[in-house]
Design a protein that fits this description.
SH3 type barrels, mainly beta, 7-stranded antiparallel beta sheet
Length: about 90
């Protein structure tokens, strides 16, 4: 099991999305896009509650990006944030 390092910028950023109840878009490596609010995170997964109030468990390793509704992309890896891009 991987260690959950709350000091990593990516972990703190996702915690901010949770605290602010920010609606986000998650994109998986398979190309699936999920929209909703992140309910919780741990070292392996993120739980997203979608627009229909369903909980979706997403493995961190399957994520390409997390994009808050509003125009900023956060590209993630197991080591943290790779880059931040505004559009």
């Amino acid at each position: 099991m991987s260690e959950f390092d709350t000091g990593l910028p990516s972990i703190r950023l996702v915690q901010g999305f949770i605290k602010d109840k920010q609606e986000v878009e998650l994109k998986s490596i398979a190309g699936d896009i999920f929209i909703g609010k992140i309910q919780w995170q741990d070292a392996n997964c993120i739980c997203l509650v979608d627009l229909d109030e369903r909980s979706i468990l997403v493995w961190r390793q399957s994520l390409v990006y997390i994009k808050p509704k509003g125009g900023v992309l956060f590209f993630l890896s197991s080591k943290g944030i790779l880059s931040i891009s505004s559009f």
